[in-house]
Specification:
- This protein has 71 residues and is mainly α.
- It is built from three helices and no strands.
- The mean pLDDT is 86.
Length: 71
Amino acid sequence: IPTMSKNEIIRSLRYEIRKLNRIIDNKIIMGMSYGVESRKHKFLSAQLDRLVPKRVGWLGRSLSFASMFLF
């Protein structure tokens, strides 16, 4: 059984999140409830964040370094 590579999983998660965003947007426009889609979106976003950590820029690194000396 072939398994998906990390990049394929990331691509698939991003695709599903984009698809859910469109569904949620349409439901908001039509005044419908979107709780189920919202929970799925939150779950998929958490999975994506676990696979692709957020990049911290130089300012964030500087602030975290400076906070070491404040506490």
